[in-house]
Amino acid sequence: MADDVLKVERHPNYVTLILNRPEKRNALNQALFEALDRELETIEKSPDVRAVVLRGEGRAFCSGIDLREIGQIGGAGGVTPEKVFSRIEKLPVPTIAAVQGDTLTGGLVLALTCDLRIAGAGARLGMTPARIGYLPTFQIFRRFVETVGPANTAEIMYLADPLDAARAREIGLVHKVVADAELPAAADAWAAKIAGNAPLSVRAMKMSIRRVMSKAFDVEHKDIDELGNKVRTSNDAKEGVRAFLEKRKPVWRGE
Known about the structure:
- By secondary structure, the protein is an alpha/beta fold.
- Helix content is 45%, strand content 14%.
């Protein structure tokens, strides 16, 4: 069943969503996006849920989009990554990402859509589209610039080298670093504390924070979107995916 890729733990006043593809380092595929979308819709309609924890089963939080299944994602009217990311970002209650091990590209974007992030000491957080000739969407750049500023965004994007948890904490990419073994308990403690506060106040606080930032980057970006589509459909992008799957160095031609 598709639901097997997502485990759900329901607590008295918060929910924990666990990405459950540990053999694939919880890489995001169509089944996982659809399972997340269904559960997020349920949470939106549940007034008793006051916080959400998102974490991964096994040694990794999420290694990104499953490139072996990338052609199936969002096709034929299926749930798109953008829909899920937006749904998490717009949930009326606070969300906490508990990240461990590989937290890369789409996995880091997933964490960044959450309001708060706690990292295990062994976490590796990074964006690697430059290694395969891809370009994140404008909204992803917006999230990074809002969170860590343009200079740190440039470091993350251009170098494509994962940051360790300490560096991620230093630049504000995560809020707290704990021992790997303590990560689930630390996330649960934050969720329980948030859920114990006045729910109307907390929901209004989240809405206020989002409204403050809503127009900060409201600029025309049609040209950037068109550029992104050219990059993502380029021969270099196809070569980058092939090289990744074949475990070899890509041959870039700038076309």
